[in-house]
Design brief:
245 residues, alpha/beta, Rossmann fold, 5 strands
Length: 245
Amino acid sequence: MNESQTSHVPSSSRRKRRFGRILLGLFVVGVVIHPWWLRGIGEFLVAEQPKSDAEVVLVLGGDHRLQEAAELIRDQTVSEVWLVELDPTYAVQAGILPADHIVATDQLVSMDVLPSQIRILNGRAREYDDAAYVLAKELSEFPEPNVLVLYERQDGRNVQRVFSELLNESQFRHLSFHGLPDDEYNETSWWRSRTGWKETFTAISDLAYTLVVGVEHHEDRESWDPDAYERELISQFGGAPCHTE
């Protein structure tokens, strides 16, 4: 890959990977294998702001979060389940696999949630900041309902930080947060699971990146036009277009 091509790789992604590698080195060097210390790390990552007046539930992820959302519907705690469409993978674009939000919708319907109670928000998400941006647009267009956000439990502090940065104060006041633990581990036992080590380090890295580097606002992102990128390559290196109308 030449220099002009690598320049189009999002700089935030490169910084994030580099930051993660540095943090991994510091974590491996500084870790002390004592349960009280490790438990403190797990508990620090968890942050809860539960409220009892939620009207809708926003699900970030799947599996047990979808089960929790279905239970909230059955208990009539909330009236709707909100989902955010993920950026499609190559397998989804090729039609090999169904999109995640379609799979999630089917799972909810199989758990007796009515299709009319499921809403796909307008926008796509790759990470928590994308989901927060999609939710902010939704809340700006409609009367602000009270929203319960479901997510992976150890991402709690990072999720709240990101959402507080990207939503205005009025919108954020309408949110409550509830993290659900993984089936294999939680914040008091994550070091006993290989998956727990992996996911906890990822949560630490993401939170540290958010605290140190900050949250990237979407208006600061450069839009990427594939056709413009192709024209730029042709102007620099010559050749024919990769596709024709």
